[in-house]
Amino acid sequence: MVSEFLQVLWNTVTELAPSLILGLLLAGLLHVFVKKDRILSHLGKPGFISSAKAALVGVPLPLCSCGVLPAAMGLRRDGASLGAVTSFLISTPQTGVDSVAVTWAVLGWPVALAKVVAAFFAGILGGTIADRTGNGLRNQETVQACTGIETGSFLRRIWNYSFNDLFRDIYGWLVFGIVISALITTFLEPGQLSRYPVLAGPLGLLAALAIGIPLYVCSVSSVPIAAGLIYAGFPVGSALVFLMAGPATNAATMGAVRKTLGSRVFLIYLFTVIFISIAAGGMLNLLSVPVSSAYHSGPGTNSITGLLSGAAGLLLLSGTAWFAFKDALDHRLKSSGKKNSELKQVLCVGGMNCSVCETSIINALEILPGILNVSASASEDEVAVFLDGSVRFDVNKAIQIIRELGYNVKEGE
After folding, report:
1. Quick check: 412 pLDDT over 60?
2. Thinking of the domain 340-411, which architecture would CATH place it in?
3. What pLDDT sits at residue 120?
4. What does pTM read for this prediction?
5. Using one digit for the tens of pLDDT, what is the confidence trace for 271-327?
6. How confident is the model over 341-369, as a mean pLDDT?
7. pLDDT of 1
8. Which of 76, 87, 337, 380 could staple 123 via S-S, CB 3.0–4.6 A?
9. Residue 373 backbone class (left: φ over 0; alpha: ψ -120 to 50; beta: rest)
10. What is the 3-state secondary structure (H, E, C) of the chain?
């Protein structure tokens, strides 16, 4: 049983890896070459057009449901309409070029296309309704957009964003999704749940919705879980419901949306995702859309075969192991710093919202003499610098560097 599980795990990794890597690189290209000010100039006027443009912008962006919130609030602060912000919040976490590439490879192009179209129309619908009935934003003054300044060649910036930022953000949840998928495949017979006809109807759609709404999964890690559900006997429409509801909703994000946008817009956000996902899933079931049969088909029968697939799988596993090691080391240094405060300098930094902000500060400070490691926490507005006691550390230089990146900073208590 263990060897079978490991084999299925490896098959899953090699199936996902090439498309995931390609999607991450495309995301990096979008990040570097798409000008943010041009996007904002199209989203300021309330109404259908702004909501449609916001959905069009949001669909290819690889942001998870937690990462999209500060980005959306940044859009609002820079003048985007309430409907555009709501549309962006709904459409963005369900898709992304990386997620679409993986969905295409694993479940086939019809499911990938259905996910993109459904997310696009969900964004338009939610944004248009929010503009007509929304009650405005709360606590708008407390939300700031990412202000980090990226340096280096465009190739370096693409690499940093694709792997040091995006992949590092999702690798834990990606592992979670792959493991869940492999467990389903190992312990359930193919189509075992299809013995229960009730799951082929609306109840199956509602079951997938009940699983997806409270569970935090990013759009990429939701794909192997959806594939596992199909393998176990759920219809493809139920898998689509999970692919939409899982990434777009979770307890933490829904609470943040309610707090920042107000109860009315929060309900629009939630019920739009529910309505469109159920409608799209039901339509997919009626059309009897075929699903890629290569996924979970057993050892050695993946659709992406050969050396490239294996190399991509090894790269994915290596990256996961590397970031897991770095995060564990950061945690250990942070813990040891609490016990040995003279080897730790804490800076209070305002304006960090996501891992891009954190990474830009970490990369800028790590080159300073006297520093062993740097950790940054956007949620705590804190940067911790762990020091080599034998080398003098210039805290004023560190503060100057952070200010040049566009953040407010002062020494911690």
Report:
1. no
2. 2-Layer Sandwich (3.30)
3. 94
4. 0.61
5. 999 999 999 999 988 887 776 544 444 444 444 456 777 888 898 899 899 988 888
6. 77
7. 76
8. 87
9. beta
10. CHHHHHHHHHHHHHHHHHHHHHHHHHHHHHHHHCCHHHHHCCCCCCCHHHHHHHHHHHCCCCCCCCCHHHHHHHHHHCCCCHHHHHHHHHHCCCCCHHHHHHHHHHHCHHHHHHHHHHHHHHHHHHHHHHHHHCCCCCCHHHCCCCCCCCCCCHHHHHHHHHHHHHHHHHHHHHHHHHHHHHHHHHHCCCCHHHHCHHHHCHHHHHHHHHHHCCCCCCCCCHHHHHHHHHHHCCCHHHHHHHHHHHHHCCHHHHHHHHHHHCHHHHHHHHHHHHHHHHHHHHHHHHHCCCCCCCCCCCCCCCCCCCHHHHHHHHHHHHHHHHHHHHHHHHHHHHHHHHHCHHHEEEEEEECCCCHHHHHHHHHHHCCCCCEEEEEEECCCCEEEEEECCCCCCCHHHHHHHHHHCCCEEEECC
Q: How many other CB atoms are found less than 10 A from the CB of residue 271?
A: 12
How far apart are alpha carbons 297 and 304 in whole angstroms? 12
pLDDT exceeds cutoff 80 at 39: no
List Cβ neighbours of 211 (8 Å cut-off, separation of 6 or more): 242, 246
Q: Which of 204, 154, 216, 115 is nearest to 30 (CA)?
A: 154
Closest-CA residue to 144 (of 77, 83, 63, 64): 77
Closest CA to 147 of 41, 93, 71: 71
Tens-digit pLDDT profile for residues 122-155:
999 999 998 888 554 444 333 344 444 556 677 8
Tokens of 140: 């708008």
Among 370, 362, 368, residue whose Cα is nearest residue 323: 362
The two structure tokens encoding residue 45:
């006027």
pLDDT value for 119: 92
Check residue 122 and give its pLDDT: 93
Closest CA to 398 of 407, 390, 389: 407
- The per-residue pLDDT for range 92-104, each reduced to its tens digit, is 888 888 888 888 8
Residue 327: both structure tokens together: 């995060």
Rounded-to-integer distance, Cα 122 and Cα 274, Å: 9
Mean pLDDT of 392-398: 80
Q: In what order do the strands lie in the sheet with 408-411?
A: 371-377, 382-387, 344-350, 408-411
What residue spans define the domains of the chain? Answer: 2-315, 340-411
**Type of residue at 199:** L
